[in-house]
Amino acid sequence: MVIYLSDNPNLSLIAGTIVNVHTKIGKLCILNTKSSLDHDSEMADFSSLAPSVNVSGNVKIGECSSICLGASIIQNLSIGCHTVVGAGSLVLKSIGNYKQAFGSPIDTVKSRKANAVYLQ
User: Fold this and answer.
1) Count of Cβ atoms closer than 10 Å to residue 17 Cβ
2) Which CATH code fits 3-108?
3) pLDDT tens digit sequence for 47-79
4) Residue 79: which residues within 8 A CB-CB, separation 6 or more?
5) In a 3-state reduction of DSSP, which class is residue 109?
6) Which of 10, 19, 62, 103 is the most exposed place for a label (fewest CB within 10 A)?
7) Catalytic annotation present for 39
8) pTM strictly above 0.85
9) Residue-range domain boundaries for the chain
10) Beta strands at 12-13 and 78-79: parallel, antiparallel or unpaired
């Protein structure tokens, strides 16, 4: 297994986390309890996976983005920078930068401001 960590691997991997092969994880990322990041996926700096999040293969998660409790993302998608994916969401399409989206299947609810408070 090969996991690529950035030059500053201040990383939080909490109990039960699964990180699969050829995965890239940026600076100060959090992978919370029982979250999974599958093969060939990337998490940019300061992004986070809440407990029980499942990320399939070849998914790109942008900088400062948060995937909330129990969300699932299918393969070959991208989540933009500063984007929040709501709890329990089923992500079947890519989401752009500065978005707030949730639902099953997911829908973009609103845009976020560049200086928005974390998770608002």
Assistant:
1) 18
2) 2.160.10.10
3) 999 999 999 999 999 999 999 999 999 999 999
4) 59, 60, 61, 62, 65, 67, 73, 85, 91, 94, 95
5) strand
6) 10
7) yes
8) yes
9) 3-108
10) unpaired
